[in-house]
Design a protein that fits this description.
The protein is α/β, with parallel strands linked by helices. The protein has two domains: 147 residues, Alpha-Beta Complex (Aspartate Aminotransferase, domain 1), CATH 3.90.1150; 278 residues, Type I PLP-dependent aspartate aminotransferase-like (Major domain) (Aspartate Aminotransferase, domain 2). Helix content is 40%, strand content 16%. It is built from 15 helices and 15 strands. The chain has a seven-stranded mixed sheet with strand order 4-10-9-8-7-5-6, with helices on both faces. A hairpin with a 2-residue loop joins β1 and β2. α5 packs across α11 and α8 runs parallel beside α9. The protein starts with 21 loop residues before the first helix and ends with a helix. It binds pyridoxal-5'-phosphate. The site of pyridoxal-5'-phosphate has 14 residues, from α5.
Length: 459
């Protein structure tokens, strides 16, 4: 779309682009973003945009945050690389583990550092298996996830991601260790006349029925995003997790909270687990851990889980896993500074102050002819587009209605992302102000109007 002056068209031809139709991409080229400040970024031709998805749900502190740049530079100048294998460590990693576990929900007390959300989820799966082998329960290996959940795309995490696009053409899923349940979208999955409470109870029964069908002795863990992000911003009923949790406890099934999007204030509490009363045994986190400035992620676990794993590693002689860049000191220093800034700047309080405006503007979009539901929590939102509000009928997928809205947003200086289920996701940097929230929604409303106008003209 836009080519920086320093690049020729031919220079763009060497990169394989994730999440694109690679052939369509060849003729169109990428939108090349070259700089950013606060909640705004600029492309190679000088057009300015509000980054309405904080990059990929990660740039919580906005662009050009000097304190993070300084933290990275300072650490690189001191020592640019160390690792955490075989009793080695570094100051930022030790301090980050301490800070992160102090902030973490419930009984979480240990951190294992990795590079991405997918790696954190893969690590959770492997350690859940290791944990049950250590306890003499080799059959207890299945992991339950939900359709439309997004947990990454590496081979194991990709099995948990309940989205067709992440499977088609990749030979996934391979076996029966990964099971999927109904996502907690009352709007899309609720039956006619079914209250939210009855819907929640039905989903809890579905979980129990599945556990009984396969045998609790074969189920290791349940993994869930507190609010599903990439699968279409699905906000669960308020009591959903509070009702799920006792079922898991009763059957000795680990609760893995995938906080890769929800962690660090996104839902108006430090963790989505805090917002929804989840008591996780393991937590995966990434993205806003470093405000997206450098790649870093973590798998967190309780002492109870850690102790079993530690005993097993003593028995086997080693915990046989780790990553060259897991526990890299530079991203760790940036993550540590990020967590300090959240406190120094009162980011959580800020989110609580401005989110009522965000949620009110989101809800108001339900007045628009295209929008069936505007849903969200904190500063995380989505609008589900429908052809018929009464029946909730969706548009022909070939129309790619959400992608059209997003293109119209781009033309109006707003970057958002189309998600499965005809949803447009909205997830601005947490530093966004009320007037910037208005600007964001004004541009989105304009894009919705333009999309309706084009549909009417085509009809
Ligand atoms: C909830 C959740 N889990 C895991 C992942 C995978 O993270 P990554 O893309 O860093 O591998 C994502 C990515 O968006 C996510 O949203």
């Amino acid at each position: 779309m836009t080519t920086p002056n320093s690049l020729e068209a031919r220079d763009i031809a060497h990169l394989v682009h994730p999440y694109t139709d690679l052939r369509a991409h060849e003729s169109r080229g990428p939108l090349v973003i070259t700089e950013g400040h606060g909640i705004r970024v600029r492309d190679a031709e000088g057009h300015e945009y509000i980054e309405g998805l904080a990059g990929l749900w990660c740039v919580s502190l906005g662009f050009g945050e000097q304190r993070l740049i300084d933290a990275a530079r300072r650490q690189m100048e001191r020592i640019a690389y160390t690792h955490t294998f075989a009793h080695r460590s570094s100051e930022p990693v030790i301090l980050l583990a301490e800070k992160l576990t102090a902030l973490a929900p419930g009984a979480i007390s240990r951190a294992f550092f990795v590079n991405s959300g997918s790696e954190a989820v893969d690590t959770a799966i492997k350690l859940a298996w290791y944990y049950n082998n250590a306890r003499g329960r080799p059959e207890k290996k299945r992991i339950i996830a939900r359709r439309r959940g997004y947990h990454g795309v590496t081979v194991a995490a990709g099995h948990l991601t309940g989205l067709a696009y992440a499977r088609a053409g990749f030979d996934l899923p391979m076996r029966d260790r990964f099971l999927h349940l109904t996502p907690p979208s009352h709007y899309r999955e609720g039956r006619p006349g079914e209250s939210e409470e009855a819907f929640t109870d039905r989903l809890v029964r579905e979980l129990e029925t599945l556990i009984e069908a396969v045998g609790a002795e074969t189920v290791a863990a349940f993994i869930a995003e507190p609010v599903m992000g990439a699968g279409g911003v699905i906000v669960p009923p308020a009591d959903y997790f509070r009702k799920i949790q006792p079922v898991l406890r009763r059957h000795d099934i680990l609760m893995i909270a995938d906080e890769v999007i929800c962690g660090f204030g996104r839902t108006g509490a430090m963790w989505g687990s805090d917002t929804y009363g989840i008591e996780p045994d393991m937590v995966t986190c990434a993205k806003q851990l470093s405000s997206g400035y450098l790649p870093i992620a973590a798998l967190l676990m309780t002492d109870a889980v850690f102790e079993v794993i530690a005993d097993q590693s003593a028995k086997l002689g080693v915990l046989g896993m780790g990553y060259t860049y897991g526990g890299h000191p530079v991203p760790a220093a940036v993550a540590l500074r990020t967590l300090e800034i959240y406190e120094e700047d009162g980011i959580l309080e800020h989110v609580r102050r401005v989110s009522p405006r965000f949620l009110a503007r989101l809800k108001a979009l339900e007045e628009h002819p295209l929008v069936g539901e505007g849903r969200g929590v904190g500063l995380l939102g989505g609008i589900e587009l429908v052809r018929d509000k009464a029946t909730r009928e969706q548009y022909d997928p070939a129309l790619k209605i959400a992608a059209r809205v997003v293109e119209n947003c781009t033309a109006r200086g707003l970057l958002l992302r189309p998600l499965p289920g005809d949803v447009v996701g909205i997830c601005p940097p947490l530093i966004i102000t009320e007037s910037e929230i208005d600007e964001l929604f004004d541009r989105l409303a304009g894009a919705l109007d333009a999309t309706v106008g084009a549909l009417d003209r085509a009809a």
